[in-house]
């Protein structure tokens, strides 16, 4: 009669320990930390936009222009954009890893998710930091500017 020993559930798979960075662990930690930070950022964003001042009826082009004239709100909104996009992309990557059976399909889908996240982060950051509510326009188009912009 032979006896079989079952390893503890917390024993690493395989006989040799893996070396290097455990990306799954850091992804898991990132999801928890970014989720908590996002709660603060999103509820702060909603409070300022919907409850302070005149509420939702005050949100228009001028409101955004005024808000983004302050570097604090540019950083706030950019941080919210980056954390949300990376958080969502990491969540989608986890879903793909769980359900895509083919390694090739998994690689294609994760690559598409990564590309989408990078493009959206770049475009969103570009919008936040290049937004100008009073662009330079020819004199014949001055009527297109918001009322708070000085006439050319």
UniProtKB/TrEMBL annotation:
<feature type="transmembrane region" description="Helical">
    <location>
        <begin position="27"/>
        <end position="48"/>
    </location>
</feature>
<keyword id="KW-0349">Heme</keyword>
<keyword id="KW-0472">Membrane</keyword>
<protein>
    <recommendedName>
        <fullName>Succinate dehydrogenase hydrophobic membrane anchor subunit</fullName>
    </recommendedName>
</protein>
<keyword id="KW-0816">Tricarboxylic acid cycle</keyword>
<comment type="function">
    <text>Membrane-anchoring subunit of succinate dehydrogenase (SDH).</text>
</comment>
<dbReference type="InterPro" id="IPR000701">
    <property type="entry name" value="SuccDH_FuR_B_TM-su"/>
</dbReference>
<keyword id="KW-0813">Transport</keyword>
<dbReference type="InterPro" id="IPR014312">
    <property type="entry name" value="Succ_DH_anchor"/>
</dbReference>
<dbReference type="GO" id="GO:0020037">
    <property type="term" value="F:heme binding"/>
</dbReference>
<dbReference type="GO" id="GO:0046872">
    <property type="term" value="F:metal ion binding"/>
</dbReference>
<keyword id="KW-0479">Metal-binding</keyword>
<keyword id="KW-0997">Cell inner membrane</keyword>
<dbReference type="InterPro" id="IPR034804">
    <property type="entry name" value="SQR/QFR_C/D"/>
</dbReference>
<keyword id="KW-0249">Electron transport</keyword>
<comment type="pathway">
    <text>Carbohydrate metabolism; tricarboxylic acid cycle.</text>
</comment>
<feature type="transmembrane region" description="Helical">
    <location>
        <begin position="79"/>
        <end position="96"/>
    </location>
</feature>
<keyword id="KW-1133">Transmembrane helix</keyword>
<dbReference type="Pfam" id="PF01127">
    <property type="entry name" value="Sdh_cyt"/>
</dbReference>
<keyword id="KW-1003">Cell membrane</keyword>
<dbReference type="GO" id="GO:0005886">
    <property type="term" value="C:plasma membrane"/>
</dbReference>
<dbReference type="GO" id="GO:0006099">
    <property type="term" value="P:tricarboxylic acid cycle"/>
</dbReference>
<dbReference type="GO" id="GO:0017004">
    <property type="term" value="P:cytochrome complex assembly"/>
</dbReference>
<keyword id="KW-0812">Transmembrane</keyword>
<dbReference type="GO" id="GO:0009055">
    <property type="term" value="F:electron transfer activity"/>
</dbReference>
<keyword id="KW-0408">Iron</keyword>
<feature type="transmembrane region" description="Helical">
    <location>
        <begin position="108"/>
        <end position="131"/>
    </location>
</feature>
